[in-house]
Amino acid sequence: MANTIKFQLIDVFTSEPFGGNPLAIFDHADGLSADQMLKIAKELNLSESVFLKKPSAEADVKMRIFTPGMELPTAGHPTIGTSFYLLKEKGIDPKKENELLLEQNIGNLKVQYEKKKGKISKILMEQPLPKFEQTFKDKKLVASLISIDEDDIEEDYPCRIVNCGNPFLIIPIRSLEAVQNLKLNNELFSEILDEIFVTGVMAFTMETQNPNHLTHSRMFAPHIGVAEDPATGSAHGPLACYLHNYNMADLSELAIGEQGYELGRPSQVKMKIAQEEGKISKVMVGGSCVHMGHGEIRIPE
Predict the structure, then answer these.
(1) Are 50 and 63 in contact (CB under 8 A)?
(2) Residue 120: its H or E element
(3) Is 195 a catalytic site residue?
(4) Separation of alpha carbons 250 and 242, rounded Å
(5) Longest alpha-carbon distance in the chain
(6) Can you say whether residue 91 is alpha, beta or left, with left for phi > 0 and alpha for psi between -120 and 50 degrees?
(7) What is the 3-state secondary structure (H, E, C) of 20-52?
(8) Cα dihedral value 171, 177, 183, 185, nearest 10
(9) What band does 121 get if pLDDT is binned at 50, 70 and 90?
């Protein structure tokens, strides 16, 4: 009989089952090679799958994160989902009170959490400080990239790559309707990727379906095996920094970005910015999770 490995299935960035972004977590994956992990991630075909391994001396656990197409240095929904699994489902005792330290390819990442009456009430990951990178001044090109009219792009704000561990092209859109109707031009995206790499395209608007939410967004990353993502934590950190940098919103308190509605998987991503002496000092992203079930899969030879 073939060797198998068990996994847990978590819906991330939602408090309702069958919402958010599904995540497969494989515990005790020390014996798996990178090629085996990639094959398993491709077989499951989720946005990301996580493989947990023994950490260094400082961290609580080591994570390897794979899309169906490649390994990522860090990612949001795998970090939040793994933290939920470790704290609530597995019940580990972190080395520091109210803080998990997760070893990822980008380095050790801090995750803050709170407990109320013995239950996990809040999980927030601390993302790397932002790098504001290339600005796409040709808005006609950007409009063609997502198949909308140039007038649908906000005139007063730039289309710019922002990086909090993964670089995303942030595109500000005027209306909810335009975001709902946009479509990525894969051929043009491939041409752009020949010139500069981005993890994905993050188009957003300040018009939302839920009036209590701050933003409505969609994220596309077909080159890494994710045609469209239901919820992207690693893109909401850059989005929060973008909103702060261009004075579009006050993020000193937790705000919610909605995503995944067009895919039938409503997601709510919490984001917050802390400042010191007028500069961003912390980028926090988090959300709720639901444990959906478990399974077992063959280990590739």
Answers:
(1) yes
(2) strand 119-127
(3) no
(4) 11
(5) 62
(6) left
(7) CEEEEEECCCCCCCHHHHHHHHHHHCCCEEEEE
(8) -50
(9) confident
Q: How many CB atoms lie within 10 A of CB 277?
A: 5
Which of 4, 3, 21, 24 has the alpha carbon at shortest distance from 12?
21
d(CA 144, CA 191): 12
Q: Where are the alpha helices (DSSP H) in the chain?
A: 34-44, 76-84, 139-145, 176-181, 186-195, 233-245
Domains and CATH numbers, the chain: 4-125+288-298 (3.10.310.10), 131-286 (3.10.310.10)
Q: What is the pLDDT of residue 96?
A: 85
Contact present, 32 and 5 (Cβ < 8 Å): yes
User: What is the pTM assigned to this prediction?
Assistant: 0.93
| Averaged pLDDT of the chain | 95
The single residue of 16, 43, 48, 99 carrying the catalytic annotation is 48
Give the pairing type, strands 267-276 and 255-259. antiparallel
pLDDT (mean) for 204-215: 98
Contact 169, 221 (CB under 8 A): no
For the cut 90, the answer to whether the pLDDT of residue 122 exceeds it is no
In this structure, are residues 13 and 287 in contact, taking their beta carbons and an 8 Å threshold?
A: yes
Q: What is the mean pLDDT of residues 62-83?
A: 96
Burial 39-56 (b: 16+ CB within 10 A, else e): bbbbebebbbbbbbbebe
* Mean predicted confidence (pLDDT) in 30-39: 97
